[in-house]
Design goal:
This is Lipoprotein. The protein has about 120 residues and is of the alpha+beta class. About 15% of the residues lie in helices and about 35% in strands. Strand 4 and strand 5 form a beta hairpin. The radius of gyration is 17 Å and the shape is globular.
């Protein structure tokens, strides 16, 4: 198979994945209009001495976690929390201080309800 043929097949595969709706380099929008009213994801920082400087989220079917969902120069200090409104469904969530401590989990967001992650 020639290089051109391989690249063409790869291009078709990437386009197909993007069409399915789970592919996004950014992690995708938090509210996408699917599944009803948004729910809330609440991340509580209970890891003494550490600030959460990065929160990455994407649908469970995504192939990448995407970009940091915190604003530029924003972090979640010890004892504080951050709330995100997001569409119902399964979400992969990863958070940490960007250096050594990191936690990952699946969050199952329900319409109109809170889902709490206690980062320890």
């Amino acid at each position: 198979m020639s290089l051109r043929s391989v690249l063409k097949v790869m291009g078709i595969a990437v386009a197909t994945i993007a069409f399915v709706g789970c592919a996004s380099m950014s992690g995708g929008p938090l509210i996408d209009g699917e599944g009803g009213d948004p729910g809330r994801l609440i991340i509580k920082n209970n890891r003494k001495g550490d600030d959460i400087t990065a929160v990455l989220m994407s649908r469970c079917c995504g192939y990448t976690m995407g970009f940091n969902r915190l604003e530029n120069r924003e972090w979640i200090n010890y004892g504080k929390q951050k709330t995100f409104e997001m569409s119902p469904g399964c979400w992969d969530v990863s958070m940490g201080d960007g250096v050594s401590h990191q936690g990952s989990t699946k969050a199952y967001i329900e319409s109109g309800k809170d889902y709490v992650i206690d980062y320890k």
